[in-house]
């Protein structure tokens, strides 16, 4: 992590965000809407949890063939991705509900995915959302195993082929929680970024360890104890579930920042980024158009520009806010990066992998 605190400075373009925020506030006032989620979002959360837990329950019933259970593992993978994008993500940003305990409850769904809430909030909410696409600070683009996602990372010969094998590595995202969470906790405790990160308390460490033990009991011990699955069959199902979840989650997240037009600004020697924070978000983030059903499933993350500008507003509002953001950006001469389709976004990401690799 960087030793110097990164700061955003550009008074000439600071008019954009106040103007945009005023228009967004006016929209919610005129529509008499809350910026948080509603009952439909709670129902969506319950659906996503069922997509994860119902197949799990069917596996535990021990009434199906091994092949059927493998199909259930795929559904659990989709459920894991759905919970991550459409439930846990909003809840950890405080936008799932205007009731704090409901946000806390649904943010805890991350423990069912093998992750840790505090680590997520530090890595995602604090570092990624504040310092988007800045090398050494935004961990989403820095120091990835066999991947070069930042122009500032060291380039190795194997990176020439990363556009071929990258999607296989994306499938390891959720299973990596087992190691990554402990490494992150250690790093955050010993290298606090400009005092943005508080040291982990004994309670935080206990939750980290206890949640991992719970997940192992939930995902491994219980199925092996009460079903006829062999260890090999269980391991295959475990791998399929996590690969499905990791592939979906990683791909959607990569389409927001590792595509053509999404910049990777570098701070100067004093840690200054020559832009206002909101302008930085516009320059480093991209949207992509996709069918409404896919947008619903991925928690509105096809509208990443709106999400990065207003992370505490629920994703159910992003489609309505998109024209407001785009119009305001055009008036201020600021780029609004939007890929016309999901395939175009995938293609753009692959092109960027090639550029970064070669």
TrEMBL record:
InterPro entries associated with the record: FA_desaturase_dom, Fatty_acid_desaturase
* CDD domains according to UniProt: Delta6-FADS-like (cd03506)
Which terms under GO biological process does the entry name? Answer: lipid biosynthetic process
State whether keyword Oxidoreductase applies.
Answer: yes
Ranges where the Fatty acid desaturase domain occurs: 66-337
* GO MF annotation terms: acyl-CoA 6-desaturase activity
A matching Pfam family: FA_desaturase
Protein name as catalogued: Linoleoyl-CoA desaturase
This entry carries the following GO cellular component terms, namely:
membrane
List the source organism: Fibrisoma limi BUZ 3
Q: EC number(s) on record?
A: 1.14.19.3
Highest taxon above the source species: Bacteria
Whether Magnesium counts among this entry's keywords is no
Q: Which residues cross the membrane?
A: 41-60, 66-87, 99-118, 161-179, 205-226, 232-253
User: Keywords in UniProt for this one?
Assistant: Membrane, Oxidoreductase, Transmembrane, Transmembrane helix
């Amino acid at each position: 992590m960087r030793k110097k605190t990164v700061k955003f400075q550009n008074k000439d373009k600071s008019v954009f965000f106040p103007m945009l925020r005023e228009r967004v506030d006016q929209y919610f006032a005129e529509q008499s809407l809350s910026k948080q989620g509603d009952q439909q979002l709670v129902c969506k959360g319950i659906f996503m949890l069922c997509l994860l837990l119902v197949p799990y329950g069917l596996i535990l019933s021990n009434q199906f063939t091994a092949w059927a259970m493998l199909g259930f593992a795929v559904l659990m993978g989709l459920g894991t991705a759905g919970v991550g994008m459409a439930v846990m993500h909003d809840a950890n940003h405080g936008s799932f509900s205007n009731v704090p305990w409901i946000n806390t409850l649904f943010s805890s769904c991350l423990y069912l995915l093998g992750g840790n809430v505090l680590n997520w909030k530090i890595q995602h909410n604090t570092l990624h959302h504040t310092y988007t696409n800045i090398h050494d600070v935004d961990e989403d683009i820095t120091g990835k195993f066999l991947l070069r996602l930042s122009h500032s990372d060291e380039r190795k010969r194997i990176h020439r082929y990363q556009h071929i094998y990258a999607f296989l590595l994306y499938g390891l995202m959720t299973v990596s929680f087992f190691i990554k969470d402990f490494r992150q906790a250690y790093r955050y405790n010993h290298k606090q970024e400009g005092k943005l990160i508080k040291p982990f308390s004994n309670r935080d460490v206990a939750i980290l360890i206890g949640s991992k033990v719970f997940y192992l009991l939930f995902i491994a011990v219980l199925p092996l104890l009460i079903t006829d699955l062999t260890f090999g069959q269980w391991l295959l199902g475990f791998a399929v579930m996590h690969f499905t979840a990791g592939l979906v989650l990683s791909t959607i997240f990569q389409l927001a920042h590792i595509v053509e037009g999404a910049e990777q600004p570098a701070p100067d020697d004093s840690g200054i980024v020559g832009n206002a924070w909101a302008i930085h978000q516009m320059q480093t983030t991209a949207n992509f158009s996709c069918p409404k059903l896919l947008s619903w499933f991925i928690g509105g993350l096809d509208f990443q520009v709106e999400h990065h500008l207003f992370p505490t507003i629920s994703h159910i509002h992003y489609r309505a806010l998109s024209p407001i953001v785009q119009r305001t950006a055009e008036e201020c001469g600021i780029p609004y990066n939007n890929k016309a389709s999901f395939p175009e976004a995938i293609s753009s990401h692959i092109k960027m992998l090639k550029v970064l690799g070669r």
